[in-house]
């Protein structure tokens, strides 16, 4: 049985840019992996981008892409269970695309990043008093 037990606390986490390392328990063995079924935060504020009407876009839903906010195919290796969100817009316009990857209105920002920022701040303050 495979069980994801959560974020690793000792060792590897501190060496990674994104603290999203999971340990998987298989029998009595524990395997560490940076692969996750959860998206990572690419940035804490949305991307303001100019889009062209009628063109197809693929919004990165996993947060691993180096071409944020758009997909570069990295999800295939780093988050295979997460697919990009394909979308088109009718006419040219400027939009705010989610960068925290927590929005409920993908690919658009819905303000959830404020919650992400607050959680990061709360975590930082908590760590100051450890
Ligand atoms: S950047 Fe994700 S909800 Fe705003």
TrEMBL record:
InterPro entries: CISD (IPR052950), FeS-contain_CDGSH-typ (IPR018967), MitoNEET_CISD (IPR042216). It comes from the Eukaryota. Keywords: 2Fe-2S, Iron, Iron-sulfur, Metal-binding. Gene3D superfamilies: CDGSH iron-sulfur domain, mitoNEET-type (3.40.5.90). Signal peptide: none annotated. PANTHER family: CDGSH IRON SULFUR DOMAIN PROTEIN HOMOLOG, CDGSH IRON-SULFUR DOMAIN-CONTAINING PROTEIN 3, MITOCHONDRIAL. This is Iron-binding zinc finger CDGSH type domain-containing protein. It comes from Esox lucius. The lineage of its organism: Eukaryota, Metazoa, Chordata, Craniata, Vertebrata.
